[in-house]
Structures are given as C-alpha cells and as structure tokens.
Target: XK-related protein
Amino acid sequence: MRGAVPRLSLTLLAAESGARLCAIIHYLVRGQLGWLGLTIACLVPGYAAQLLSILWFRADGHAPGCWLLALHLLQLGLWKRYWDVLRAAAKTGGGAGELLAQLGDVCVLRLLEALLQTLPHLLLQAYVVVAVDPAGFIPGVSAGLSLLSLAWALVSYSHFTFLLKPGHLSPPAAVILCLLLWRTGMLGTRVLALVLFARLYSFWVFAVAGVHWLLMSFWLGAQQTDIVAQPCRWRLFNCLLGAVYIFCYINVRPGPSRTRAALFYAVSTWNVLYSRWM
Model:
C-alpha cells in the first residue's frame, strides 16, 4: 500500500497538470484572455513548494545541479521526488526509515502545493463553470481533477502521519477510500457554496470568507500550537492555516482531535447560515 500511495499521487498530479494545460489552451484558442491570465496566475504560488523542495534537497546534502533547478523551474520538482520514492520503495520494499522520510517530505510539499496552487485553480474553474460557461467541458474536467487531486493530497498526508505513529501499519484500502470520499465531499461542498455565493453577491464573498478566516486564526492562536517556535513565524503560520480552515480541517496538534474537529464544523455551519442570511 505504501508504494500505491505515491504512485497514485503521481498519476493524479500528472492528470491535474494535463487538465490545467488544456484549460490554458482552451482559453487561449477562444480568446478569453482574462480567464487565461487568471489561470496562469494560479501557477505562481506553487513555486513556494518548489523553492522549499530545493532548500530541503540542499539541507539533505544534495547540492542542486542545473538539471534539478530546471525541473523545479518547470514545476516538476515534486515529480522527481515521487520518482525517487518509487525507486526507493522498489529497492527496500517500503520498510526503510529513509524511504519514510522521503515520503514525508513529498507528502508535505504536495499538500503545500495543492493548497497554494490547486485550490485557487479549483475555485477559478468552478466559478467559470457555474457563472460563466455552464457547458464548458474542459474547465469542468479541470475543476474535477483539481478537486480530486487536492482531496488526495490531504489523504496522502494523513496516511503519512498514520505511519509515523509507533506500531501502526499502512491503513487498508477501505480506510483510504473512506478518507478520500470524506475529503472530496467536504471540499466540494465548501467550494460550491463559495462559488454560488460569489455568483449571487459578488465581492461579499470576501467578507464572509474574511470573518471565517479571522475566527479560525484566533482559534488556532488560542490553542498555542508549538509547531513553529519563533513568535512572528508562529503568527504567520496561524494566519495561513486559518485561511486553509475556510475549506478543510487539518489536525496540527498531537492527541485526540474530536473536540477540535467538532468546533471547526460548528463554525463552518455558522458560516453557511450567515451566508444564507446575507
């Protein structure tokens, strides 16, 4: 199962990238330069994950050469990391500590890239399908693959954290499938709600999302998470994660998360009711 997770991650990453390229060509051929520019702009935040990947290669003692820098410049750095994981899994059988470390690096980087790049692209293409071109096949396929890829990035990260626990083996396929369905449904409903609200009330969607973001950021600060030691970086981490919590819940503290998840869904429900009231 450990080899299947990175293999499926790489397949979905390739499918998502191919669909995004088709969407760019679609807007270019139809002369929709505004949507073309926004679609290309969604690629820019993904370079944060590529830069972090290069820094981690250097920290691991692998001096990045020209070819490695070129791969990251073309946003293929994570593809290279997945390929390394698959080669290491074929050699060691999936049980080495070095393999687990490589898997952890690529899962974290892929989750960061998905949140910074795939999520904005998903929102944009979903808005195009709902408000601009309901019959648009290519934007619809691109949005669907982005949703699936983002959900799988969350599932693969959860799979890795499960492997870190002492005595835990790789979860069965049924558990992985249930997690994927849960993440896909949660993200899909949140994205659809925001897109429909934006269609009806235009820029008021930023007010609703902003209130949710502030509530989540203050809540994370009240939990005193110790993932980041420096005060300034700790505040920045809480602000960034607060923005992620507009769409999905990610457990960042050890121990049972039932109470925290219940509070998150309570705030999300209030957010939906507030949106309908407006």
